[in-house]
From TrEMBL:
Residues 184-390 form the DNA/pantothenate metabolism flavoprotein C-terminal domain. Keywords: Decarboxylase, Lyase. Residues 7-175 form the Flavoprotein domain. This is Unannotated protein. It comes from freshwater metagenome. One of its GO terms (cellular component) is phosphopantothenoylcysteine decarboxylase complex. The keyword Lyase applies. InterPro entries: CoaB-like_sf, CoaBC, DNA/pantothenate-metab_flavo_C, Flavin_trans-like, Flavoprotein. GO terms for molecular function: FMN binding; phosphopantothenate--cysteine ligase activity; phosphopantothenoylcysteine decarboxylase activity.
Length: 398
């Protein structure tokens, strides 16, 4: 006997990307989801009601006053395990954030307590508008999963962030994040992120190109899976979910101090921060003049990961390695052993690859060698993959 279909709602906003939601509907059906489409009235200018009914095999309505006897905004909300809204326009995001209920879709959202995934698609100027960004942060603070739009060519002829993401990315996000089981409930997860800086004088510093995107993705992925999450983040303005306990630091010493305070109580440590290997032997209290720069003497920073690992009991530690050339697999295995970590994620950063990017490619290794190859996935997807491997490692350790 086949497993029963899982009921979900596909909400469709009034943007040109509405036609791409037809493929999304098919791919969700391929994953054995039973899908009811709830388009906004304006979206029917792009894809008509007959198309949605033909593809879904189900009745399609857009207004609360359609099929009133069925009380569809309540019955659909109760029946659906989750809601995917794709594409979501700036207007639709604003209406949901404001709690408005002026069509069937926004009524269903208000009546539902199920997980919601919102997939924005709009012109970059609209996406980066402060009002839209504030609305997105409001939705995320309420536990709604909001994807970042993709970057590329747009209908307007412009290029930028605002494209409808690839269907495979949306389905992956929906299954691995929005519908994620709470398999980390009761666990404490500690994540480091960003790049440390070592002061030369009050203006200049020694640093690196890490943005913190991967670390924040890990923290939010762990949160979505039920963990109690702490994030130690260095020199990054990236926002993080309000439910994450956040510590902003700058230097290696500051990060090390916070790690020592938090590590022993944690179950998993994801060491995604790029930690400076060295610092100036002397730091000037005044801004140095050009003529003062004849040389900068350096001293090695403490190896904070190796030091922390030496104190572990049952914690699972995931390290990160960024290499540019040579036998990078051997280099990663050597680092894994030297740092005392259980797993390591290796990627090549030749020519500045990875830093600041929304996607990543690389290898996941344990002491036996490569256990997973990662090819051009979102950093959100990698976060869940690393968590999966960390949980598997913990289970093996007993």
């Amino acid at each position: 006997m086949s497993a029963p279909h899982r009921e979900i709602i596909l909400g469709v906003g009034g943007g040109i990307a509405a036609y791409k939601a037809c493929d999304l509907l098919r791919r969700l059906q391929d994953r054995s989801f039973a899908v009811t489409v709830v388009p906004t009235p304006s979206s029917l200018n792009f894809v008509g009601k007959a198309t949605w009914e033909a593809l879904s095999g189900r009745q399609v309505t857009t207004e609360v006053f359609d099929a009133v006897d069925q009380v569809r905004h309540v019955s659909l909300a109760r029946k659906a395990e989750a809601i995917v809204i794709a594409p979501a326009t700036a207007d639709l995001i604003a209406r949901i954030a404001a709690g408005r209920a002026d069509d069937l879709l926004t009524n269903v959202v208000l009546a539902s307590s199920s997980p919601i995934l919102i997939v924005p698609a709009m012109h970059p100027a609209m996406w980066f508008n402060k009002a839209t960004q504030a609305n997105v942060e409001t939705l995320r603070s309420r536990g709604i999963d909001v994807m970042e739009p993709a970057e590329g060519a747009l209908t307007s002829g412009d290029v930028g962030r605002g494209r409808f993401p690839e269907t495979s990315e949306i389905v992956s996000r929906f299954i691995t994040s929005t519908l994620r089981d709470q398999d980390l409930a009761g666990m404490k997860v500690l994540v480091t992120a960003g790049g440390t800086r070592e002061a030369i004088d009050p203006v200049r510093f020694i640093g690196n190109r890490s943005t913190g995107i991967q670390g924040v993705a890990l923290a939010e992925a762990a949160l979505s899976r039920g963990a109690d999450v702490s994030l130690i983040i260095a020199n990054s303005e990236l926002a993080s979910h309000p439910a994450i306990t956040r510590f902003d630091v700058s230097s290696v010493d500051e990060m090390f101090s916070q790690l020592k305070s938090s590590f022993l109580e944690t179950n998993f440590l994801f060491m995604a921060a790029a930690v400076s290997d060295a610092r100036p032997t002397l730091t000037s209290e005044r801004k140095l003049k050009k003529e003062d720069f004849s040389r900068i003497d350096l001293v090695q920073n403490p190896d904070i990961l190796a030091s922390i690992s030496s104190t572990k009991s049952q914690q699972v530690i995931v390290a990160f390695a960024a290499e540019t050339d040579g036998d990078i697999i051997s280099q990663a295995l050597s680092k894994l052993a030297n740092k005392g970590a259980d797993l390591i994620y290796l990627n090549s950063v030749a020519n500045g690859a990875i830093f600041g990017s929304a996607t990543t490619s690389g290898f996941i290794l344990d002491s036996s060698g490569v256990i997973d190859t990662v090819t051009e996935v979102s950093k959100d997807s990698l976060a869940h993959l690393l968590i999966n491997h960390a949980i598997s490692t913990r289970n093996k350790l007993g």
